[in-house]
Amino acid sequence: MNASWPPFLVKPKLNLSRPTLKMPSRPSDTLIFGIIMVFVLFVLGGGVYTLVRDPIAIGQYLNKPALLAYGLDSQFKIEGFVASGILLIGILGFGLLYRATRYTYQPAFATRIMLLGLLLAGISYLILQYFMIVKTTVPS
């Protein structure tokens, strides 16, 4: 038996293709680096201590405001933020040192960038060492 289509039904002529699924685009390297750097500064600045212990924001010593808590086992909230900022300055200094290597055909400009990077990294190191000296000395 030969069945035919009724004349009012029209067979559609469609070119259906299989859908292709694509992976979402990868975020930029700068964004990934920034997120990792914020996390590292949070940890190195004492963010975990601040979350766990819930210290006071700022303290006082002899009725004067104190930025640093004495002893290595305590910290003020502001101390963590300041330490993170100083670490960021040091990281920017090392970033400038790295950036100076790209200007090999402009030695004067590369030298200026390198000196600025050394200055930032050195100042950051000295300030953090001062913080450690203040924190480890017992106030009298």
What does this structure look like?
This protein is mainly α and 140 residues long. It has one domain. The protein has 4 helices and 2 strands, in the order ααββαα. Strands 1-2 form a two-stranded antiparallel ribbon. A hairpin with a 2-residue loop joins strand 1 (59-61) and strand 2 (64-66). The chain starts with 28 loop residues before the first helix and ends with a helix. The mean pLDDT is 87.
Question: For the CA atoms, what is the radius of gyration?
Answer: 30 Å
How many β-strand stretches?
2
Poorly predicted regions are none
Q: What is the number of independent domains?
A: 1
Q: Give the percentage of residues in beta strands.
A: under 5%
**Global shape:** elongated
First-residue to last-residue Cα separation:
111 Å
In DSSP terms (H or I, runs of 4 or more residues), the helix count works out at 4
Helix percent reads 40-55%
**Main sheet: strands, sense, barrel:** 2 strands, antiparallel
Order of helices and strands: HHEEHH
Look at the helices and sheets and give the structural class.
mainly alpha
* Mean pLDDT level: 87
Strand order of the largest sheet: 1-2
